[in-house]
């Protein structure tokens, strides 16, 4: 069965600097790269590299960045037939600074991503009969995310929402449409309105989110691993110790690994462990899509 990814495509403009700039500070960087990214496209590549059939629904602008973004997805085997080209605006871009400690600042300019609408939901609906999982994020307009989730829920497709970038205003109607919600600590804190800093507050946040209608919450806790809370159980998956180089796509890697595992029939604990491993591997390499591991690399790592 196919994993569908409904979301953003961005060109990442990445500058590496000794430290992240303070307000008003000008820095001399080490290097600069243009790297295909966007949370939706990253997650699609993450799934496809793990050997699972993947199709992307999204939009680019009529520019060189858009052509490069589509070519990169196709090179990884992601289906792109339902990605539209908006002639009236530019493709999405993300301006990223990464420092020597692998921390980052990101500015996203949505461009074509911000103009997704009903036409994209219609294209999603065409593919839902052949899909097992739908991956969603929040780099496209929120109303269209809700409509995509409604369509998938009605079709019996598992809905995974990565609530990133973090925001506080998810509508109440969206929560019951989500089968698995995968916030990190910052995103969870934004959603529930209190800081998430340890296991106790993480459990409180997950319980709060489930009370709003979410079936399962997987709260990503960085080096502390992941906490899973379902209607019948709660358990923790430890993180994999690695030397981090660049954390830009770690969340996307986690969600792609999770979706690929669920589409392949793994249970939730197995799927979360695979997701944690994919995320761990991703931070050992620089860049968003270039850091996402293949199935062979994942199997070797887990072995």
Task: Please tell me about this protein's structure.
With 303 residues, the protein is α/β, with parallel strands linked by helices. The protein has helices spanning 39-49, 64-75, 118-127, 142-154, 185-192, 199-211, 250-263, 268-282, 295-302, and strands at residues 2-6, 10-16, 31-37, 54-61, 79-86, 92-98, 104-109, 131-136, 158-161, 180-181, 216-220, 226-229, 234-237. The chain has a single domain (2-9, 37-89, 113-302), classed as UDP-N-acetylmuramoyl-L-alanine:D-glutamate ligase (3-Layer(aba) Sandwich). Helix 1 (39-49) crosses helix 7 and helix 5 packs across helix 6. The longest helix has 15 residues, at 268-282. 49% of the residues are buried.
CATH architecture: 3-Layer(aba) Sandwich
For the record, what CATH class applies?
Alpha Beta
Helix content: 25-40%
Terminus-to-terminus distance: 26 Å
In short:
The protein has about 300 residues and is an alpha/beta fold.
Salient structural properties:
UDP-N-acetylmuramoyl-L-alanine:D-glutamate ligase, 9 helices, globular, four-stranded mixed sheet, 34% helix, single chain
């Amino acid at each position: 069965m196919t994993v569908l990814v409904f979301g953003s495509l961005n060109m990442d403009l990445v500058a590496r600097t000794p430290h992240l700039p303070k307000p008003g500070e000008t820095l001399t960087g080490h290097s600069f790269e243009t790297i295909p990214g966007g949370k939706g496209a990253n997650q699609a590549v993450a799934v496809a590299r793990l050997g699972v059939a993947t199709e992307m629904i999204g939009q680019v602008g009529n520019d060189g960045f858009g052509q490069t973004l589509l070519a990169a997805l196709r090179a990884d085997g992601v289906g792109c037939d339902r990605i539209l080209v908006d002639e009236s605006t530019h493709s999405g871009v993300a301006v990223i600074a990464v420092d020597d400690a692998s921390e980052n600042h990101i500015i996203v300019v949505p461009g074509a991503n911000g103009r997704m609408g009903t036409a994209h939901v219609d294209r999603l609906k065409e593919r839902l009969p052949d899909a097992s999982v739908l991956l969603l994020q929040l780099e496209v307009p929120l109303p269209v995310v809700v409509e995509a989730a409604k369509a998938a829920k009605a079709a019996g497709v598992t809905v995974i929402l990565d609530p990133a970038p973090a925001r506080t205003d998810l509508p109440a109607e969206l929560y019951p449409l989500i089968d698995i919600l995968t916030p990190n600590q910052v995103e969870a804190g934004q959603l529930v309105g209190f800081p998430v800093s340890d296991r106790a507050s993480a459990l409180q946040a997950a319980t709060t989110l489930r009370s709003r209608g979410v079936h399962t919450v997987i709260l990503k806790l960085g080096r502390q691993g992941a906490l899973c809370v379902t209607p019948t159980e709660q358990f923790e998956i430890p993180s994999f110790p690695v030397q981090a180089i660049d954390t830009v796509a770690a969340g996307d890697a986690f969600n792609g690994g999770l979706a690929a595992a669920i589409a392949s029939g793994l249970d939730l604990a197995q799927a979360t462990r695979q997701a944690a491993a994919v995320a761990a591997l991703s931070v050992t390499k620089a860049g968003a899509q270039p850091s996402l591991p293949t199935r062979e690399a994942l199997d070797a790592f887990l072995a």
